[in-house]
Design a protein that fits this description.
By secondary structure, the protein is of the alpha+beta class. The chain folds into three domains: 5-96, no CATH class; 126-241, Hypothetical protein (Archaeosine Trna-guanine Transglycosylase, Chain: A, domain 4, Roll); 253-342. Helices cover 34% and strands 27% of the residues. The chain is built from twelve helices and 14 strands. It has helices at residues 17-29, 57-60, 64-72, 85-96, 99-103, 112-117, 134-143, 198-201, 236-241, 253-265, 308-313, 315-342, and strands spanning 31-33, 41-43, 48-52, 74-78, 126-131, 145-148, 160-165, 169-183, 205-221, 231-234, 278-282, 285-290, 293-298, 301-307. The strands form four sheets. A six-stranded mixed beta sheet has the order 6-9-8-7-5-10. It has a four-stranded antiparallel beta sheet with strand order 11-12-13-14.
């Protein structure tokens, strides 16, 4: 191939400019009608790629239309029986990336991506309240209220209350219509309290949240080893899009994307309640998210592995790197145990 003239962007082999422009038109014209969206039509194509015969893949990495895949997700890739690595790498990322990362490639908000962009992560206006037993659950659901002695008015306004049933998780939530304080003795279900402290409890001020109606979550949130004690806070996006208790305390969009990617590929992800960091444990590996970076805990030291932004762009690549690191640590630990045993 000897490219020259205006059909090619430079003197290197690659797709024609007209072909790339056609890919743009194809991608932007394929839409579907979504009656539940504020957009009449939404785009469903994430990208478009041209394959052309060329053998020198490393050389092509400097080409304008290879770099454009990273920026606008449209470009070209060399492809021959002897040159398949770049196409294989792209397909691997497209197939195994998290759905949220795939949505990030779209030019218009689609599905969850639209809601994610509207989240104010500084607001925690969903109160998660502990329900200790079935008797209290019936009380709260029948009376359309939830009450607790532990609540700081600095958390007002509270828009929703979610009920965390001890040993079961969260399946119900309600929209708050009023908040007030009342002595426990004046509230329903006082007879459920037992013990010598009942007389003192009668006058204790409780925070009462009345709800309009109890709703059922489409996806129940699974029980965790720990729960609210007796209350905790999250936002409505996380309440609506989580399946595990840990997810309710993610602090920003980067953490949400990282968690969603890891959750999809692992059986266990545990979030620890820390002020400045979030930690996940999976496959025996402990990963720490500290504001902008990803670290792996190796004994008593932290090994930096990647940035959160890099994970958002290439979640599968970051995950593979973490897993390779985990395998290395496990291999080193096995070698050490073997050496000790032989000694």
């Amino acid at each position: 191939m000897n490219p020259d003239g205006l059909y090619y962007p430079d003197t290197k082999p690659g797709p024609k400019v007209d072909d790339i422009n056609t890919m743009h038109r194809y991608r932007d014209s394929i839409v579907y009608a979504n009656p539940s969206s504020r957009f009449t039509f939404e785009k469903t194509m994430f990208g478009a790629y041209i394959l052309f015969p060329f053998a020198r893949e490393e050389e092509y990495k400097d080409h304008r239309f290879y770099k454009s895949i990273e920026t606008v997700n449209i470009g070209g890739l060399p492809f021959l029986p002897s040159a398949t690595s770049l196409v294989t790498e792209l397909l691997d990322e497209l197939v195994t990336d998290s759905p949220e990362a795939a949505f990030e490639r779209a030019t218009l908000p689609v599905g969850i991506e639209e809601r994610l962009r509207l989240v104010d992560w500084s607001r925690r206006d969903v109160l998660i309240g502990l329900v200790p037993d079935d008797a209290h659950l019936k009380l709260y659901t029948d009376k359309l209220m939830y009450f607790t002695p532990r609540f700081d008015i600095a958390h007002l306004p509270v828009r929703y209350v979610a009920l965390y049933e001890k040993g079961k998780g969260i399946s119900r939530y309600g929209e708050v219509v009023s908040w007030r304080k009342a002595a426990r003795g004046l509230l329903p279900g006082f007879e459920l309290n037992r013990g010598e402290h009942k007389r003192l409890l009668k006058k204790e001020p409780y925070n009462v949240f009345e709800v309009l109606k109890w709703h059922t979550l489409a996806t129940p949130i699974s029980v965790a080893e720990y729960g609210p004690s007796p209350i905790a806070y999250t936002n409505f996006f996380l309440l609506s899009n989580s399946s595990s208790y840990s997810e309710l305390f993610l602090k920003n969009e980067d953490e949400y994307r990282f968690f969603a990617g890891l959750k999809r590929m692992t059986d266990k992800a545990v979030l620890e309640d820390e002020d400045e960091a979030t930690a996940f444990e999976f496959e025996g590996l402990k990963v720490l998210l500290d504001k902008k970076d990803i670290y792996v805990v190796n004994g008593e030291k932290l090994d930096k592995q990647d940035s959160l932004r890099e994970f958002v762009k290439h979640p599968n690549r970051t995950f593979r790197r973490l897993m390779k690191y985990a395998e290395k640590l496990q291999s080193n630990a096995t070698t050490l145990v073997s050496t000790i045993s032989e000694g």
